[in-house]
Amino acid sequence: MTAPLKIGCIGAGYFSQFHYDAWGRIEGAEPVASVDLDISRAQATGLTAYGDPGAMLKDVQPDIVDIITPPETHLAYIKQALDAKPKAIICQKPFCRDLDEARKAARMSEAAGIPVVVHENFRFQPWYRAIKAQIDTGAIGDVLQLTFRLRPGDGQGPDAYLDRQPYFQQMPRFLVHETAVHWIDTFRFLIGDPNAVFADLRKMNPDIAGEDAGFILFSYDGGARALFDGNRLLDHAAENTRCTMGEALIEGTKGTLDLKGDGSVHLRAFGTSNTQQILSSGAYQGFGGDCVYELQNHVVRALLDGSELENTADAYLPVIEQENAIYASAAAGTWVKCN
């Protein structure tokens, strides 16, 4: 019997709880160590705790290093992890501080022959997998328009985000860099890369540093368009507004797919009023349809059976390029071409 892959995690902050929970449920993986500069947080995971990544990497020699820390630490931790020669590295988003650092990380990964996978998990949510399957089978024909309305309802007042991720308040670039980046990646997963973007961004809550609302329009070859309509101060009709964080329509020449706030997906054929449920709402164990589990399991399965990895560092670079184009468009008030 093959021994399980050893998992060494760097970081034990708020969102890491979903990583640790998922690792404990993945067949073929064994979480063995946690690192945090505040070693008490690493100890709270129940794993062997370290206050220094170098010591963990030397002692444990993990097969997968999971980096669950802020962007300013990513490049240094990736380099340190690559030197330990694991089978793969997973790194949380936003990926590195900027495009230059992300490119360096991708080059280091390629030179070492060790994949670095960006933990961009929304494309792994079950509703987007179901929508992608419907698009690929031609159920709605040619996609002409995609719209997502972000409405988590957590951004009002001076206490916004303080109970969960207080650093959100201080991010100079917030809505796009931290949140909409999920849908930049998801849109390209569903319908490919845009040729240009146009953005109108604004700050609605005066108690935070960055933008928290805006419209982003994506243009595609052939005339299709996608719209990200985001406002963190507003909510949508869902018992858990953080399940999908909003609602989506994917409209094509033969029909429309409708994502509800409970995670269900419905198909309506063009020219009819009847709908068919493609995916029902579910009681998922983890965050956002258990997408953290699905991403981490995807990496484990790829290492064990040789299947292709999604969102390696090099493949993810266009997401950061598009993010930069969005901010440039908002500053200039004009369309900006994407590379």
Can you give a write-up of this model?
The chain is of the alpha/beta class. A 9-stranded mixed β-sheet has the order 14-13-12-11-7-10-9-8-15. The protein has a 6-stranded parallel β-sheet with strand order 3-2-1-4-5-6, sandwiched between helices. The mean pLDDT is 97. The chain folds into 2 domains: 115 residues, 3-Layer(aba) Sandwich (Rossmann fold), CATH 3.40.50.720; 183 residues, 2-Layer Sandwich (Dihydrodipicolinate Reductase, domain 2), CATH 3.30.360.10. It is built from 9 helices and 15 strands.
- The CATH superfamily of the largest domain is known as Dihydrodipicolinate Reductase, domain 2
- Determine the fraction of residues in helical runs and give it as a percent range: 25-40%
Using the coordinates above, name the CATH class of the largest domain.
Answer: Alpha Beta
Count of separate DSSP helical elements? 9
Sheet with most strands: 9 strands, mixed
Q: Give the overall shape, derived from the CA principal axes.
A: globular
Terminal Cα span: 47 Å
Whole-number tally of structural domains: 2
Q: How many beta-strand segments?
A: 15
Structural class computed from helices and strand pairing? alpha/beta
CATH architecture of the largest domain: 2-Layer Sandwich
Strand order of the largest sheet: 14-13-12-11-7-10-9-8-15
Secondary-structure element order, N to C: EHEHEHEHEHEHEHEEEEEEEHHE
Q: In terms of per-residue confidence, which ranges show pLDDT below 50 for 5 or more consecutive residues? A: none
CATH-derived topology of the largest domain:
Dihydrodipicolinate Reductase, domain 2
Using only CA atoms, what is the Rg?
A: 20 Å
- Please identify the oligomeric state: single chain
Provide the residue-averaged pLDDT: 97
